[in-house]
Amino acid sequence: MEILAFGVQADEKPLIEHAFQAHHDIRSLDVFLNGDTAPIAAGHEVISTSVNCDLGPGVLEALAAGGTRMVAQRSTGFNNIDLAVAERLGMTVARVSYYSPYAVAEFAWTLAMAVNRRVVRASTRTRDFDFRLDGLMGRDLHGRTAGVLGTGKIGEAFTRIAHGFGMKLLGWDIADNPACMELGMTYVPKEQLLAESDLVSLHVPLMPETWHLLDAAALRTMKDDVILVNSSRGGLIDTAALVVELRAGRFAGVGLDVYEAEAGLFFLDKSLQAVEDDTLARLVTFPNVLVTSHQAYYTAEAVGHIVDATVRNVLDYTAGRRSENVLVPRI
């Protein structure tokens, strides 16, 4: 059987092809699955997708009509998949429920330190042989307060690093994580966390309940000199409201590895095209904002885990087995 994989990055291609070679043929495409590319999948019982592929109702209908019966998503998030429609069509859907949490947590800290110490601006200056320090002053994080929204595996890893910096720890989640509490974390209401934290990092999944978790009202409760980091899902932040706060001179730094309208932008080269997204265009002009293209997970270890789990998901499907990764079971 030939598996068709959409949205495969250049670094990912040899890993995924090597992992599948002993089991099934696989054809890797760098294009993302959407309404225009769905016909390519015709005749493929199993396809693999990335988080920026579109698996809405129309695309799923097209896939089902072409004979696709299984979608193996190469990510933990699955907000891009209409699970109800997939179930109605009798399609199996699986994801990767776990991979290295350190990849994302460490990158979240990379963003935090980069905006705190003005690393991007400093690097740009020195490339022009401008060695002034004006405007590059950061601040010690030791003794300050880190607020962690979401304390699962990634949030816990982020918390351990914050503890190593000697920071006070505040957490918010639907359930307390004992490991974080052992590090000295105090769980508080979201409003209190936002009001008291010097650094806020988001590590919660995107669901209807968490859409715009940081809306205009929430953003206004945060300190004027707070550092905000989002390496989870773009839809957790109302970006238009964030731009309003940035225009008012608030926030010491903002590090975003995700963006709520990133589909059709991230993972692609748009450098020779006009920017149609006014909000993103404005966002990247702020000197205290750093935007990266959803790369927090992108380490050899994490991608290796993702690929291995994807292979297992496909093998489970062909064998009629069900694991914790299955979102919509085989009928």
From TrEMBL:
One of its GO terms (molecular function) is D-lactate dehydrogenase (NAD+) activity. Belongs to the D-isomer specific 2-hydroxyacid dehydrogenase family. This is 2-hydroxyacid dehydrogenase. Residues 8-327 form the D-isomer specific 2-hydroxyacid dehydrogenase catalytic domain. It comes from the Bacteria. The keyword Lipid biosynthesis does not apply. It comes from Streptomyces bullii. Its EC number is 1.1.1.28. It is an enzyme of class 1 (oxidoreductase).
